[in-house]
Amino acid sequence: MRRSTAVVTWTFVSVVLFQCWILVSTVAAWAQQGQDAVYNPSNGVTNSPAFIDASMFAGSVSSPNICTVLNFVLTRVVKTTYPNGAVIDARGLPNSTPTTSMTCTGTPWSGINNPPPSTILLPATGRAATLNPIVISSTWILPNKTRLIGEGDGILSSGSSPGTIIEAVSPLGSLQSMIQFGSSSSSICPQVGNVPTCTGISVENLTLNGQAQSVDGIINQYAQSNSYVKHVSIYQILGTGLLVSTPGSGSGSANNSGPYSNITFDTGGYSGTGSTVCASINGLSGTLGIHGLSCTSETHDAPAAVLLDSSNNSIEDVRIVGFYDGIRIGANANAQSNVLLNIIGDTNPTGGSTPINVIHITSLGHTVSDLSIMGASNAGGSAQTITIQDDLTGAPLEDTSVGIYALGESPSSGVGHSRFTTSPNAAHWTVGTSTPNSSPCNQGSLYSCASSSNCSYALWVCGPSGWVMIK
After folding, report:
1. Is pLDDT of 353 > 80?
2. Among 17, 138, 213, 307, which residue carries the largest CB count within 10 Å?
3. Mind listing the domains of the chain with CATH numbers?
4. What is the pLDDT of residue 296?
């Protein structure tokens, strides 16, 4: 019997398609280089203008390294053809032909006036022979609307496998900070009322390694809305890990920036110095806050993990190990209307020490008021570890945990502050259904009896000799 021609033809086509599928799948699994393709009604299949494979340009640069290749793409491709911005995929550069070095000369934006917006996808890097870290000797100053996205963060000493590592050259030379958001230059940040104002700058999913040197990690003094840091590990940086502030001189600010979330700071086996700070917010009118922060130093040599010298910020979900102060408030500038949530002075499971003061409210001539603390704890459990040290009211709380501590404002006379706390070890307001007992109480505390049958009076105050009925 003769088989149908249609059946034979379909069988042949199926076999060919199956073989092509295997070939395409194998190639895709081995290498993903080349421009993304889209269909254009006029030109048919063409490369996507929104996505540029940087590895395709490694041969266009003499002795290429990741910075010079990215600089070439930004200058010759993005700025000339896609001035409104593009995604630059640099993930294939470690395996490009010719081989691209991960040791930078200059920065990706060196010599570019008014760099175009870009999202740069950085490659996976590490300590393996085939995955060298990205080594920088000059600060990466990120221009307006620039985003850096790595392939994962992780602390090197924890046994995790970091996806992308940017490493400070050793010795530092002139390198003072690793990444800076914007600058005072009009070619980097647009001028709004003669004030440099960048927006849309971010760093995500990578690790910064300072190699145990006094270098800063990320500084933001010029980028405002839609500028943030997310999932970044800061390792062996003995300067400031994250600084969000106004410039020391000149105009600019990082107001309305953030949130700064899921950040891990670890000195990595080295003791912090007198200038080691995990995170600092200074001199601003408000940010979107820090949400998710872990700060670890080997000893109490580092004065404070977090410096809060700014108003209208929220700091939440913080774990601190090995600093003298956990969060120090108002030491360098006014700090008003701030909220702290879930702040933990933790114990290093290998036997490290806890913060001396988990939260330290200073009295150094700057205004600190309208501070709300909800959920503060200290795992130290000794007289030398204080959960909340309030220099304004003179109240050190050694409680293992404090549910609420609210510090209000000072009256016009400048004497005292309004304050409320759930701690029984400071002047507080308690509610019960029976007469308060004669045990010692904290002078100035109030007791309200909510039962008309058990109490002859509704309100008591704690005096020098104990509870006194208010008639």
Report:
1. no
2. 307
3. 33-121 (no CATH), 123-421 (2.160.20.10), 429-469 (no CATH)
4. 92
